Amino acid sequence: xxxxxxxxxxxxxxxxxxxxxxxxxxxxxxxxxxxxxxxxxxxxxxxxxxxxxxxxxxxxxxxxxxxxxxxxxxxxxxxxxxxxxxxxxxxxxxxxxxxxxxxxxxxxxxxxxxxxxxxxxxxxxxxxxxxxxxxxxxxxxxxxxxxxxxxxxxxxxxxxxxxxxxxxxxxxxxxxxxxxxxxxxxxxxxxxxxxxxxxxxxxxxxxxxxxxxxxxxxxxxxxxxxxxxxxxxxxxxxxxxxxxxxxxxxxxxxxxxxxxxxxxxxxxxxxxxxxxxxxxxxxxxxxxxxxxxxxxxxxxxxxxxxxxxxxxxxxxxxxxxxxxxxxxxxxxxxxxxxxxxxxxxxxxxxxxxxxxxxxxxxxxxxxxxxxxxxxxxxxxxxxxxxxxxxxxxxxxxxxxxxxxxxxxxxxxxxxxxxxxxxxxxxxxxxxxxxxxxxxxxxxxxxxxxxxxxxxxxxxxxxxxxxxxxxxxxxxxxxxxxxxxxxxxxxxxxxxxxxxxxxxxxxxxxxxxxxxxxxxxxxxxxxxxxxxxxxxxxxxxxxxxxxxxxxxxxxxxxxxxxxxxxxxxxxxxxxxxxxxxxxxxxxxxxxxxxxxxxxxxxxxxxxxxxxxxxxxxxxxxxxxxxxxxxxxxxxxxxxxxxxxxxxxxxxxxxxxxxxxxxxxxxxxxxxxxxxxxxxxxxxxxxxxxxxxxxxxxxxxxxxxxxxxxxxxxxxxxxxxxxxxxxxxxxxxxxxxxxxxxxxxxxxxxxxxxxxxxxxxxxxxxxxxxxxxxxxxxxxx
Length: 779
Ligand SMILES: Cc1cc2nc3c(=O)[nH]c(=O)nc-3n(C[C@H](O)[C@H](O)[C@H](O)COP(=O)(O)OP(=O)(O)OC[C@H]3O[C@@H](n4cnc5c(N)ncnc54)[C@H](O)[C@@H]3O)c2cc1C
Known about the structure:
It is a single chain. By secondary structure, the chain is an alpha+beta fold. The protein folds into five domains: about 10-85 and about 150-220 and about 325-380, FAD/NAD(P)-binding domain (3-Layer(bba) Sandwich); about 90-150 and about 225-320, D-Amino Acid Oxidase, subunit A, domain 2 (D-Amino Acid Oxidase, Chain A, domain 2), CATH 3.30.9; about 405-480 and about 565-660, Probable tRNA modification gtpase trme, domain 1 (Gyrase A, domain 2), CATH 3.30.1360; about 480-565, Aminomethyltransferase beta-barrel domains (Alpha-Beta Plaits, 2-Layer Sandwich); about 660-775, Beta Barrel (Elongation Factor Tu (Ef-tu), domain 3), CATH 2.40.30.110. About 25% of the residues lie in helices and about 30% in strands. The strands form eight sheets. Strands 5, 6, 7, 14, 15, 16, 17, 18 and 19 form a nine-stranded mixed β-sheet that branches. Strands 9-2-1-13-21-20 form a six-stranded mixed β-sheet. Strand 16 and strand 17 (about 260-265) form a beta hairpin. The radius of gyration is 27 Å and the shape is globular. It starts with 9 loop residues before the first strand and ends in a 5-residue tail after the last strand. Bound molecules: flavin-adenine dinucleotide. Flavin-adenine dinucleotide binds near residues 207 and 209. Flavin-adenine dinucleotide binds near residues 15, 37, 40, 321 and 344.
């Protein structure tokens, strides 16, 4: 056994598939001063009881690419290490008995073709011929994905570990990480059962135990374990080459196992389990069989696969696995401590995702950024509130079942709701607000006024009408708000943000840059005085903004104070908004107060601060929370004369897309360099600027933000559609909307300049191919 190193450049905690993949990829990038520590034997956590299935078709483009990378990497690592990992490409049948799902499946072969993966549509008889154990009765059909594969998880870990060791990485088993050593906000080592290891960076790949480890440096992670079960039968004559199967309708998946069958369930009301309840040692890291939980799925499985009625049961395997609030893994720099990275919380997808996750995290450490846009997996997408034990424990119980549903456009999780509410929540709920949670805030999506035959989309159309013809008001109190206070605070902001943006701090919208000029946060600078300014950002950027300010190394005399709960925020759009505000002020109903002024919160009266957002063509009112209801009532009463409409996030989104304003997480992400944003910022016309900063990561790929219209007929919102040029994928639609009565669909998207040859493009969406026509977005 190798001795534990006393120093390393990177320490990896955890020897499951996540940890060994990170080790292998660091070595691949030339970093061999790497120490991996595993408290027991390699692969002794969740990995060893995984079924090791790989679904190669995924609707999400990032996850699709990650699984594609896994399918290339597993055989390659097996060859490199000389260790067979049981990689077998057996294909998969996905079947359905529901009309809605069947309609969706019919669109998949064409989508697959665009993305370079074979998908074949199957009739019910076709399903049966591919999967002879299934009872055909009631089936509508399915799809066949020949590239789907399986791997032996323990052998996969052995192969990755061997290949990493051969490249110089040190792996220490039976060595427990006891704590992360932090000085002045940065990692400087890891304390282990075999001594301290000095290092510059730590990758947390300890699976469901990752949350326990970060507590040693005062942090929390939004991750919790669930029980996850599958049945293993004795041999029952099943063909060893039987394909994998999956049904979201039945909430079942499975495959052949030594001539028998494995059938697993994707549970509703899954059972949360805390790490304290788990045995510490390898041999018994399995939980008791829970037949009461599995019974309903077993009944469905026996109906669907009659062979199960007679097959002998070997065991009901119950293994713990970690889940997150949105069902996506945790990747990237953990906020609060510099040099600490997450590669954990795989939501039962670790075998499929860990090869790419290990690569991205290695690139992040070595090159400053991952080679793919992983914003959707970035651990900073969650707020602190979402790491609270009570919140996460409740939420994860819904994750496996939720993934199986075809969701209505305004559907959201049912659990862990109503944690954070706007001061206006009761007022909004009283007039029919339909909420969805973002960063644990309840945010209004649209208003259901209970009118007969008025669908959600009709209601949104009416709300949008206010924003174009009269006035629309939307509650944005969930936006994150930081007050920057101290002598010359505004100058400091201008020095640290504006030089990178080419704009001065007078610009209301400002991308805050990261170390290599990437957009880390997209803020609005609201109230401004020389010594105080108010930065706001969409709720999903709460942690990013806090972390940017922490890392910005503020001078001692400037303080960033989180004021999110202190102010309500209302955004007014539409041609009559100024008249309405004047009328409100002229009547003496409310007074203007600069929200950045020191006295703003203590002078009494119904005050608000009003700021024009030229880009969004809107006015943002910032109101001390305690006055919010009073200002709201007066606004609504006075608004009657101005045909004021009350709307939600959907209406704002429709107007944003129509105006061509890029949003963080969609058109603009940390994969965008500040210098790449269109010169006509932030209007999304064809951007052509190229990255000029010297320290741009090797892996960076420029993208063009473009606005289009399209004859696509379906009403509603959409995103993540493939953009084609002569049948080749050249980009992705990031936002699109069409409302009833609109002559066209309006869309924003990203083109890859390395792929796009300047020709006409089309979107593959809603089961068809639709031309995209570039459009001007008015300034
Ligand atoms: C029943 C079941 C079926 C599944 N089927 C599939 C599937 O078909 N396809 C798929 O893609 N995924 C599947 N998964 C999910 C997949 O197995 C996991 O996502 C993956 O194995 C997680 O890997 P990991 O490296 O993050 O965690 P783990 O494998 O748990 O590794 C973490 C390691 O960290 C170690 N550790 C913990 N604390 C410390 C410490 N303090 N110091 C040092 N080491 C420590 C642990 O001992 C452990 O070895 C399944 C999971 C289950 C439970």
